[in-house]
């Protein structure tokens, strides 16, 4: 017997239709739930790390070693690079001096702006002398460690990322934009990390309209596009090996990095009224100043 026996001959057919609707409804509900799970998974960074950039802080001991390179090493190198040429910064004019808001000491500070990308070996190479030079004016409490993309030239080059950087100085303000990371989920574009603000975007538009990496802008007075030396200098070396080489002034790695750091330092000193004195009066920095004629245009 069936519950619906009193119905007419059309009754069984109606039951079949109802069952069909119920089955279709259950399928629709299942598909909706599956779609919801897929969407949630796509938006959950823990669910798919292939599209997520990871920040790796550089060891404090590594940053300290760069900040504590003996001045005698930088002075011995000066701007002498017999093995690898170093491209100088370019003096620029006709642009407002780039100053940040008044700092803790009550005066507006010149801006040092770096615009880079983690995937780029050229940005990675330039990050070394930049960290060395900036450590002469202040303190990094956080800076990242990164290797350039394996799909680019000089793949896996050891360097630093300024994404999430933390830096303090009484003499300058560091503004850093790490535009792209090293993760390339589609094979067509690296993941975006940061966007420049209006002042930073204006500097990029004027001094680096092709958006090549890296760009270094010292207060709109000295600019460099690209790395100061070929990344081949650092190819195949680990971060610890590079840092270890910096103790020897006759080492080609030391000569390239210290020359570039001395030139960056001299450019910054031109905007800080040659402060701090111990840094700006050092023999290696004075040699860079003379080579570039910085005091004449600062």
What is the string of SSEs from the N terminus onward? HHHEEEHEEEHEEHHHHH
Helix content: 25-40%
- Return Rg in Å: 28 Å
The proportion of strand residues reads 15-25%
The major sheet is characterized as:
6 strands, mixed
- Compute the number of strand runs: 8
Low-confidence stretches: 1-17, 20-25, 27-50
Number of domains: 2
Assembly type of the chains comes to: single chain
End-to-end gap: 102 Å
Structural commentary:
This protein is an alpha+beta fold. The protein has two domains: 11-47; 53-297, no CATH class. The chain is built from ten helices and eight strands. It has helices at residues 11-42, 60-67, 71-77, 121-134, 198-207, 239-245, 252-269, 277-280, 283-292, 294-297; strands spanning 90-91, 99-102, 108-116, 138-147, 158-169, 173-178, 215-218, 222-225. The strands form two sheets. Strands 1, 2, 3, 6, 7 and 8 form a six-stranded mixed beta sheet that branches. A two-stranded antiparallel ribbon has the order 4-5. β2 (99-102) and β3 (108-116) form a beta hairpin. α4 packs across α7 (252-269). The model is unreliable at 1-17, 20-25 and 27-50 (pLDDT under 50).
Ordered list of secondary-structure elements with their pairings:
Layout: H1 11-42, H2 60-67, H3 71-77, E1 90-91, E2 99-102, E3 108-116, H4 121-134, E4 138-147, E5 158-169, E6 173-178, H5 198-207, E7 215-218, E8 222-225, H6 239-245, H7 252-269, H8 277-280, H9 283-292, H10 294-297
Helix pairs in contact: 4-7, 7-9
């Amino acid at each position: 017997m069936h519950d619906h026996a009193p119905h007419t001959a059309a009754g069984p057919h109606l039951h079949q239709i109802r069952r069909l609707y119920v089955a279709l409804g259950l399928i629709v509900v299942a598909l909706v739930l599956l779609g919801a799970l897929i969407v949630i998974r796509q938006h959950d960074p823990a669910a798919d790390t292939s599209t997520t950039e990871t920040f790796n802080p550089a060891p404090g001991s590594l940053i300290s070693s760069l900040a504590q390179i003996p001045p005698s090493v930088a002075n011995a190198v000066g701007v002498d690079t017999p093995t690898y040429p170093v491209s100088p910064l370019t003096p620029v004019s006709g642009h407002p001096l780039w100053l940040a808001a008044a700092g803790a000491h009550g005066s507006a500070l010149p801006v040092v702006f770096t615009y880079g990308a983690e995937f780029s070996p050229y940005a990675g190479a330039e990050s070394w002398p930049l960290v060395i030079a900036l450590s002469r004016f202040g303190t990094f409490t956080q800076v990242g460690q990164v290797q350039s993309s394996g799909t680019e030239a000089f793949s896996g080059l050891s360097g630093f990322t300024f994404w999430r950087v933390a830096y303090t100085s009484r003499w300058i303000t560091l503004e850093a934009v790490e535009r792209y990371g090293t993760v390339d989920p589609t094979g067509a574009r690296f993941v975006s990390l940061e966007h420049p603000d209006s002042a930073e975007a204006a500097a990029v538009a004027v001094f680096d309209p092709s958006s090549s990496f890296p760009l270094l802008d010292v207060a709109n007075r000295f600019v460099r596009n690209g790395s100061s030396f070929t990344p081949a200098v650092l190819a195949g070396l680990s971060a610890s090996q590079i840092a270890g080489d910096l103790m020897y002034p006759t080492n080609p790695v030391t000569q390239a990095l210290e020359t570039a750091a001395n030139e960056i330092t001299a450019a910054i000193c031109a905007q800080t009224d040659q402060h701090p004195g111990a840094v700006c009066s050092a023999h290696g920095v004075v040699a860079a100043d003379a080579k570039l004629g910085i005091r004449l245009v600062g």
